[in-house]
Design brief:
The protein is an alpha/beta fold. It has a single domain, classed as 3-Layer(aba) Sandwich (Rossmann fold). It has a five-stranded parallel sheet with strand order 3-2-1-4-5. α2 packs across α7 and α5 crosses α6. The radius of gyration is 14 Å and the shape is globular. 37% of the residues are buried.
Length: 139
């Protein structure tokens, strides 16, 4: 299963935001073992570096980004993705960009804790717990 992981799930793990970090860790573990193919939107990488840098320092942020780019494939953001996001009907432009990048990357779903933000998604939208259950059932 090819999934794009939203920024909030990445931050849940890296900032150990309980009670959400447990499901995020489980999801990352499943991606690491190859049970799923993980994608991050390019904007997630830059946003994560910025927020981790503010919370934990730039050196730590750079180390974490290196780990993420080794674990995940990156869904590109280019002119086509930005135009699609503008036309997508998403209230939040950032969510529209993530959705358009996910579609262009050919993923099968988006994983987020903010499913309500993806009401107009053309892709299935899952919580981390839902994806973990799907992956377990597929074993």
């Amino acid at each position: 299963m090819k999934i794009l992981v939203d920024t909030n799930v990445v931050l849940d793990l890296l900032l150990d935001r309980e009670p959400f970090s447990t499901a995020a860790a489980g999801l990352f573990s499943r991606i690491q073992t190859g049970a799923a193919t993980g994608f991050l939107c390019a904007t997630t990488v830059t946003t994560t570096h910025y927020l981790i840098g503010k919370a934990l320092g730039t050196k730590r942020a750079t180390r974490e980004i290196r780990k993420l780019t080794n674990l995940f494939q990156i869904a590109a953001v280019d002119h086509v993705v930005l135009e699609a996001a503008l036309l997508s009907g998403f209230v939040d432009f950032e969510d529209g960009v993530l959705h358009a990048a996910a579609k262009r990357a050919g993923v099968q779903g988006i994983v987020t804790r903010n499913q309500q933000d993806f009401k107009v998604s053309e892709l299935p939208v899952y919580s981390p717990d839902e994806v973990l259950r799907l992956l377990k059932a597929a074993q």
